[in-house]
Design brief:
The complex is a heterodimer. Chain A is an all-alpha fold. Chain A has helices at 44-61, 63-66, 98-133, 135-150, 153-164, 168-195, 198-205, 210-246, 258-266, 277-305; strands spanning 24-25, 31-32. Chain A has a single domain, classed as MetI-like (MetI-like fold), CATH 1.10.3720.10. Chain A has a two-stranded antiparallel ribbon with strand order 1-2. Chain B is α+β, with helices and mostly antiparallel strands. In chain B, strand 3 (82-83) and strand 4 (92-93) form a beta hairpin. Classes of the chains: A mainly alpha, B alpha+beta. Chain A: Residues 1-23 are annotated as: Disordered. Chain A: It is a multi-pass membrane protein.
């Protein structure tokens, strides 16, 4: 038996694995010890992705230091100016500095991406775990997930904002609602698979409580796919957030967001072609960064399972 | 140094460049002369005009003149009894050839044009006038001049070529009604509400409507004006995005557009390939409305502060690209209610605005400012107004709404704070505005404003038989004073709408309600 032989495989409450590490099983037949493995985010594309995302976050956090103007300041006689040393990306249709609005716009997007997506991931994972343990809960959650998945993201967003009105909170709710079924299904499937593994069965046979088995054996084994999905979902959330702001159901003006700056730029590209460049670059960098992180994590899982 | 390629000697290169330059110049000159000398500048009969508009037809709003889908349909398919020239309020013949008002101003006799038929072939008679005016007066159609139509107490249609309208009282704006109401075919009117059938007497027949996509029209071969119209067909695409509308013009997919931004039109006109049509005489007014029952807005000092704080000149210049002028009152300059002095009552004065806010004394909670989110002009205006008011201590939250929701709130007087949009009807007899338009209607308006004085002045102005008389002008002056002192609506500016056409299209015209008139339009060869 080679596929499930791990340290502490038959551990029961009160006994610790010899190494002190949490025993985890990758998808394949080799044990994985993340603490001993060099993290995929410190090399290659993982590192590149991390740097890209970090650069965007730093730009957003440091916006008050980097931005030459307040994001909502309407500058006299500065209507739709082209790029200059005074306004590197020009000005918009109500005389605001586009660079400043782009930098501050990162903050709104980052808040949604880095709060709403993890919130959706946590709630979805919890729902997945619960549904894997109780038959009734399983039926209910799966049908709820079916309903959520039946709505395309923007239709769901339009429906919700028709009731609540536009704003950052509705965007966050939409992102959470979209992530719930993704993480819920992922965790449920992974949990059901891990539960069938011999060492988990052995622990249960030895009288280990269900909660202990979940905490010590199941959750550590589903953590990696959840992390990969998290990175992917973050890049997707950038799109959803930008798209909602683009079609006018995002944050309320004059608060800047990447999508709203981009949307406003479209009608004014003939006057200031650089208007769209700033938000486009930031969105592209953020999505690319998240994708590279997800790819690095996926590749690492494959390697670990090989 | 290796020997130079004989084909690339300095002389041969210069000769080659010279030849190429000459060839290019010749080519350009030929192209220019071809264009100038060819029939390209001449118009011809026939052809299909491809047009683009920003808003789709809403059948239920047929009588409201509220969007470009409706004004395009009515302009092409229907006609009124009279027509005002664009630059003044003076009736000229259309389906009525002459008219006579009784001495007491309570009976108007209209002689109708002979030989006019509906698109179904049925002759136009006095019964159709009665049917059209009575239908317009039905509340279900939300016609803004309903009160005027309802003041027609009876119709004498005994002569098919003559109709006598008996009025409850003299109506200074009766011709506004006759200019506005399209004459509809009673036999097919059921199709109007569903968007299935539109039958009028106009130069084009309605062919089909594909919701959110296209309206199609064909020439009316039996039009009463011989030889007109020139065009065979008109296909109107619905293009809600102003940028796409501009792109379609640039790429030659359409030759007429209504719905572009003022900035785009300015840039298109600068290319010399397109013609800007500024609709003088068909003005709209951009304004900020207030719910005077809302906290803070119920105090006149706060409303005055708003009026002093708004930078009207900036909005007219940056948002509307100087296609109009700043005002304090709704009347356009040619109106007999216009008064230049009164229009400076609330000139920009931020110090005075701040002082009024301080005088009010209480903390002002965030006031919502609603606008239709789909229209970039409103978003721009709202953001400037917000910044202006914040600067004098009036906090404002922007509230972008879906277009249909916005109109529902406007008609239902459901705005909790302020709103910004266009209104119209000030280009007509001034009394029309104060007894008809939703925001101004003295009987019921979107601001919840009610005043015995305002109602009385509005009614008196309305009931003067000659809307252009000195007596009427005196009433308009008092109405202007009422509007300036109550300030339930804060005017920003009079705006002339703009259309843009490619230089291929000639002879495009419009009515005072921005209806598209292609009776004499033609495409160049």
């Amino acid at each position: 038996m080679t596929d499930t032989t791990v340290a502490g495989a038959a551990a029961v409450p009160g006994s610790e694995p010899p190494s002190g590490d949490v025993p985890v099983i990758a998808a394949g037949n080799a044990p994985a010890f993340p603490g001993r493995r060099r993290t995929p985010l410190l090399r290659g594309r993982g590192l590149t992705g991390l740097i890209l995302v970090a650069a965007v976050i730093v730009a957003g956090v440091a916006a008050p230091l980097l931005a030459p103007y307040a994001p909502e300041e309407q500058i006299r006689n500065a209507n739709l100016l082209g790029p200059s040393w005074q306004h590197l990306l020009g000005t918009d249709e109500v005389n605001r500095d586009v660079l400043s609005r782009t930098l501050y716009g990162i903050r709104v997007d980052a808040l949604i991406v880095f709060i709403a997506v993890p919130a959706g991931a946590v709630l979805g994972s919890l729902a997945g775990v619960v549904s894997s343990q109780f038959a009734v809960a399983d039926v209910v959650t799966q049908r709820v997930f079916d309903v959520l998945l039946a709505f395309p993201a923007l239709i769901l967003a339009i429906g919700l904002t028709a009731v609540t009105g536009p704003g950052a909170v509705p965007i966050g709710v939409v992102v959470v609602a979209l992530e719930l079924p993704l993480f819920g299904r992922l965790v449920r499937t992974a949990t059901l698979a891990v539960r069938e593994l011999p060492f988990v069965r052995a622990a249960e046979a030895m009288g280990a409580p269900r909660s202990w088995v979940l905490r010590r054996h199941v959750l550590p084994n589903v953590a990696e796919p959840v992390l990969v999905q998290l990175a992917l979902s973050m890049s997707g959330a950038v799109f959803i957030d930008s798209a909602m702001n683009f079609i006018g159901i995002g944050v309320r003006p004059p608060t800047p967001s990447l999508g709203s700056v981009l949307a406003a730029s479209v009608a004014n590209l003939h006057s200031n072609p650089m208007y769209a460049v700033g938000p486009l670059i930031v969105i592209a960098v953020l999505v690319l960064g998240c994708q590279l992180i997800a790819q690095a994590l996926t590749a690492d899982r494959r390697r670990a399972g090989a | 140094m290796p020997p130079m390629n004989p084909l690339l000697t300095r002389r041969s290169v210069l000769a080659g460049l010279g030849f190429t330059g000459a060839a290019l110049l010749t080519g350009c000159t030929s192209a220019v002369s071809l264009q100038a000398g060819s029939p390209a500048n001449e118009t011809s009969k026939g052809g299909t005009l491809r047009a683009g508009i920003g808003q789709d037809l809403i059948p239920g709003n047929f009588f409201t003149n509220s969007n470009s889908g409706i004004t395009t349909l009515i302009g092409l398919v229907y006609e009124g009894l009279i027509r005002y020239p664009n630059d003044r309020v003076a009736p000229t013949p259309r389906l009525a050839t002459s008219w006579q008002m009784s001495a007491d101003g309570r009976a108007l006799t209209l002689t109708l044009r002979q030989g006019v038929t509906f698109h179904t072939g049925r002759p136009f008679t006095s019964k159709d006038v009665e049917f059209s005016l009575r239908t317009y007066a039905e509340p279900v159609w939300n016609g803004q001049l309903r009160s005027t139509a309802a003041a027609i107490t009876s119709y004498d249609t005994s002569d098919p070529q003559k109709v006598v309208l008996h009025l409850a009282h003299p109506l200074g704006n009766i011709f506004d009604l006759l200019d506005t109401v399209p004459i509809v075919d009673s036999e097919t009117f059921d199709g109007v509400g569903t968007g299935r059938q539109y039958v009028g007497t106009g130069p084009f027949r309605f062919v089909s409507w594909t919701p959110n996509s296209q309206l199609r029209f064909a020439k009316n071969p039996k039009y009463w004006q011989p030889g007109l119209p020139y065009l065979d067909n008109v296909n109107v695409s619905v293009v809600p995005d102003p940028t796409s509308l501009t792109s379609q013009l640039r790429s030659g997919q359409i030759d007429y557009a209504y719905g572009n931004s003022y900035l785009d039109i300015e840039q298109l006109a600068a290319t010399k390939r397109f013609t800007k049509h500024q609709l003088a005489g068909a003005e709209q007014q951009i304004y900020v409305g207030t719910n005077i029952t809302a906290p803070a807005l119920s105090d006149i000092r706060v409303r005055q502060a708003i009026a002093y704080a708004i930078d009207r000149e900036r909005i007219m210049s940056e948002v509307f690209r100087n296609s109009g002028y700043a005002v304090n009152l709704p009347w356009p300059k040619y109106s007999n209610a216009y008064d230049a002095n009164k229009n400076t009552t609330y000139a920009l004065d931020t110090a005075k605005a701040s002082a009024l806010v301080k005088e009010y004394g209480k903390p002002i909670a965030e006031i919502p400012l609603a606008y239709s989110a789909q229209v970039p002009l409103y978003r721009q205006t709202a953001q400037i107004v917000q910044a202006n008011l914040q600067a004098v201590g009036i906090p404002v939250t922007l509230d972008p709404l879906d277009g249909a929701q916005f109109v529902k709130r406007l008609i239902g007087a459901e705005f909790p704070g302020m709103w910004t949009t266009f209104h119209s009807w000030a280009q007509y007899t001034p009394s029309t505005l104060t007894v008809s338009a939703y925001p101004f209607n003295a009987a019921k308006n979107s601001s919840h404003y009610s005043s015995a004085q305002y109602s009385s002045d509005a009614t008196q102005a309305w009931q003067v038989a000659d809307g252009g008389s000195e007596e009427a002008v005196g009433h308009y002056g008092r109405l202007s004073d009422d509007l300036l002192s109550a300030l339930f609506l804060i005017e920003i500016g009079v705006v002339q709408p703009q259309w843009v056409t490619s230089n291929r299209l000639r002879g495009v015209s419009y009515t005072k309600r921005q209806e598209l008139d292609l009776t004499r339009a033609a495409l160049s060869v």
